[in-house]
User: Fold these one by one.
Assistant:
Number 1:
Amino acid sequence: MSTPDYGRAFSLMREAAGEAWGAYTRHAFVEGLKDGSLPRESFLHYLRQDYVFLIHFSRAWALAVVKSETHEEMLAAVATVNALVAEEMQLHVGICEAAGIPQEDLFATPERPENLAYTRFVLEAGYSGDLLDLLAALAPCVMGYGEIGARLGAEKSSETYADWIGTYAGEGFQGDCAAVGQLLDSALERRLGKDYANSPRFATLCDKFRKATELEVSFWQMGLTP
Ligand SMILES: Cc1ncc(C[n+]2csc(CCO)c2C)c(N)n1
């Protein structure tokens, strides 16, 4: 299976993240989703934490609207806020309700430190920096799940987690990843010029991307320990 193309900046940042990228996208939790061996208890624990995660991620994408400098940037950011609140959070509510966990319980899930560390790192990148700092911290989450979804959609050997895999493998979500990739490319060119990859700023953005990738690894690891 070929890896999906989410744009030039993403490819460069992914490369700069080194081994952390594979540790994230091929984590044992992901392989357990692929072959159905992930214990249900771990999956539900992950989903409850992820619901809280998505609340804060929606706030971070809303901050991207605040940090936008063009109508086009605002449109891309607002589309992601909507995808998060209306689709992804709904997926979690649906799966958890079917498993006997009501929505009020989800909202009241005590936040694990690994979860808190990740979302507050991203929000802080946005509070202290500009749209580029924020997008560099947000990108691993979107494109990583895009890559995971595309691979698991093609390679899965069990139907146990097919709903979850289908959401991220589907055309809708893959289109969202391409749109975020384009936003990242155009935001970089607008602020740093076409040669952005050779700007000193780019290295600091790659650091943020790698840090967020490492926080994704910790999040999967947390999922394995309910
Ligand atoms: C820990 C964790 N990391 C990434 C995602 C995936 N995700 C979060 S926000 C977003 C963009 C809007 O769809 C996507 C794809 C997740 N659910 N949980």
Number 2:
Amino acid sequence: MSFPLRLGRFSLCRPIVNCTRPIPNLSLRMASSTPAPRFAEGEDPHQLSSDTTTLQQQGWALDAEGMGVTKTFHFKSYFKAVSFLNMIAAESSVKKHHPTMTIRFGSVDVHWTTHHPRGLTHKDIALARHCDAGAGLIGAVEPGQGLKCGPETK
Ligand SMILES: C[C@H](O)[C@H](O)[C@H]1CNC2=NC(N)=NC(=O)C2=N1
């Protein structure tokens, strides 16, 4: 078949992608962009797999290494975002398990992982659930409904 293909008044250009030839390593590349969870030593992998799946259905994502979970919570005021962060900080102090948090004008990014033993643990799962419960109480909103300042996308 030669391009451009003439069809009366219309002409069809050569397709950009040749669909008949498989793209090498496509499955490999897809696999590496979707990390598998890596649970810490001593954890129950069956229980944690199921708990992690449930969290993913609640908007949590595995981090790049599969050793932690992350989620951004959105709020309609900076005060609510700060209150949420403080609520998490208080529980972290009680449970002796601490997240990495980034606060913005109308959102908070939360990342839970366990440093020792290294990997995802039941503590990360429990505290991620605590975040979801607290976000509900403080009045988190859907992404896009939160307060925004400047050109930031989050
Ligand atoms: C002694 C103290 O409880 C430990 O160092 C705690 C502190 N907070 C922690 N937080 C997190 N995220 N992972 C840990 O392994 C951890 N260890």
